Amino acid sequence: SLILKSSSQYPLPQGVKLSYGTAGFRADASILESTVFRAGILAALRSLKTQSLTGLMITASHNKVTDNGVKIADPSGGMLTQEWEPFADAIANSPTPQHFVQLIDEFMKKENIRFDGVRSAEILLGRDTRPSGESLLEAAKQGVYSIVGATATDMGILTTPQLHWMVRARNKDMKATELDYFVQLSSSFRFLVDLTPNQIKMSKTDGKLIVDGANGVGGEKLEVLKKMLNNMDIEVRNSGKEGVLNEGVGADYVQKEKVVPQGFHLKDVGIRCASLDGDADRLVYFSVQSNNTSKIDLVDGDKILSLFALFIKEQLSILKMEGDDHVDENYEARLGVVQTAYANGASTDYLKQLGLEVVFTPTGVKYLHEKAAEYDIGIYFEANGHGTILFSESFLSWLNARNNELSSKSKGLEQQKAVLRLLAVSNLINQAVGDALSGLLLVEAILQYKGWSIHDWSELYHDLPSRQLKVKVVDRTAVVTANAETVVVRPPLIQEAINVEVAKYPRGRSFIRPSGTEDVIRVYAEASIQAAADSLANSVATLAD
Ligand code: NG1
Ligand code: ZN
After folding, report:
1. Which of 19, 20, 22 to mutate to test ligand 1, by most ligand atoms within 8 A of the CB atom?
2. Where do the Alpha-D-phosphohexomutase alpha/beta/alpha domain residues begin and end (predicted)?
3. pLDDT value, residue 408
4. Is 263 buried (19+), middle (13-18) or exposed (0-12) by CB count in 10 A?
5. Closest ligand to 161 CA?
6. Is 466-544 CATH 3.10.50.40?
């Protein structure tokens, strides 16, 4: 068969064992050709099964430049369905072409996938700026083409969220080129900013934003957006023309190390700064500390989430205002906030005190996304800066209907503005996956709306001091957790011991879990002062060892 012939050209290197995990396949780029070839086949099979377009992205996000990776975008624009992950693992590790072909045959029978469907497979391909991306993209194409009738369209160098956005848009029969993406983001941003109340149009938010592009793909894309936004006052640094991808730069570095990225200095004190990761699906803000210019005041994913939640809640309360004779037309929009155990405890307290419903899922975007989709408006973020806002179809149609109705009345102008703001947010934010560029524009629009400086925003609440550690263990799967990873159920007795340690510290909280991407157990601890968080993390790490 075609698959047998082409897969013999992409043999699996000796001793390679890969797992699809929470972030697709990732490894040193030199061993990934066969994996990416097979992922091309996987994307084509997924397209045949769903009779829809799928996507394939070549990136290793915030990992080092010599790494690379591959992930599949499902027809919704979200991550590959979890039901297919075991099959993804099986084909990536299949030792011989014969075995590989047999696996595929069996899977196609089981899933009832046939080549004689109405549509043949169609896949959009994208890659980040890594030098290994070009040849890996070729391998992906060969994988796609070994499925009869399948077509692959190379969309070029993209951010991960751009590719996911395109897949989602195409499957909704919307225009889905890169230009369409930029037009949608820039026009909805402008629309939202035009709805800012007049009295605060001149505000502390004026003045430039400096963005660290992680020496990756995000910087150049942001330059395009900036031009479409009338040369908005954004200065892009680390756009990849000189420095090395993710080396001493980027959202992952800034959030984990809490230090300034390369290229930022004393003269940036007081200025609003932001940092993207290597494929621009994570975003954090920060400002350079005046007393110690290597240190930063971090505004992480939890605080971006809090800003979004606050804004949306305000718009919903404007909608509920009386003074209109049609109070019964209020739709009880279910607003939900989704976090993981890594969310700073102070952020959770803040959100709950706003009266919001806060729920927790295990680490990994796919879990957060799935949970957020249960609400009319679901907002999710990981502390590391990956997150977005999801709107239900029924809520969006209600908003549109409400807008039409309010247009024909003289009353209810404030309500109509709130409706229009929510609609603009739904167009601006990337509802397929977390997107640093669309997230950044939403942050900027909300800061302008509120007339806030980054300092005002940062003061929403004060983070509890926290510490993260890694413990290398022989077998990380020995640790099994429950309740969104907050409780260890195996090995026995560890949880009791953690509880004893936690009880020693005011506002103490700690948990351990096996990493999904590295061969380690991660330890997280927080407490009222840094020394206590450090010491709690250290004692829990000894328990995990
Ligand atoms: P693991 O290695 O499972 O902790 C890390 C991040 C996740 C997510 C994934 C995928 C932390 C503590 N964990 O997962 O949030 O981003 O990588 O990239 O940051
Ligand atoms: Zn990323």
Report:
1. 22
2. 51-84, 118-172
3. 87
4. middle
5. 2
6. no
